[in-house]
Amino acid sequence: MDNSSGVGVLDKAAAVLAALEAGPATLAQLVASTHLARPTAHRLAVALEHHRLVARDMQGRFVLGPRLSELATAAGEDRLLAAANPVLAALRDHTSESAQLYRRQGDMRICVAAAERPIGLRDSIPVGATLSMLAGSAAQVLLAWEEPDRLHRGLQGAKFTATILSGVRRRGWAQSVSEREIGVASVSAPVRAPSGRVIAAVSVSGPLERLTRQPGRLHAAAVVSAANKLTEVLRRAGD
User: What is the DSSP code string of 87-154?
Assistant: First the structure.
């Protein structure tokens, strides 16, 4: 199938964005993925970065930029976010803990939706908060199903290990205790695109005194159920 629009520069820019859909890429990786000349790939990536359609991660690699999410939301096409608020509210009400939805962006994860526990001691993560991919159950989930080379790079400096991520894949959920912040525990599960790729993580988090040192025993089933509901929303939208 010919994907050419007849506007060469637009087709090349689209090729750069399509290459970054698979994850962070160096300039050399962009050249290999797009088959563009190195100067062309660099010029387009920098121009797209100027318009926030492309950004850089902490290692200087190119990643998809925040403007894409803003455009998707403005167009009403982001079905995940549209469905997330009622699902997170129901999860909060069921567990009596704060609930969040995270997406990965480069070497960080961003809270894109949240339902806060209304009263009492809580782990408050505001929408838009940027957290590390090196700690926390949501980071484990967002990394566990990555390709081996990206998984290996993601483990460098992480507070969790390859063995822990193997357990996450086996169970289908992750837990953390004082990993991201002392005294805070959390449980997370993956949200998948119709292709099966993990694109987000649903979490509940709260003080260790309530969630205990085995928070998965308390809340894994509810978190997995919430994540599966969002996965189903995306599956139906893709039919």
Answer: HHHHHHHHHTSEEEEEEEETTEEEEEEEE--SSSS-----TT-EEESSSSHHHHHHHHTS-HHHHHHH
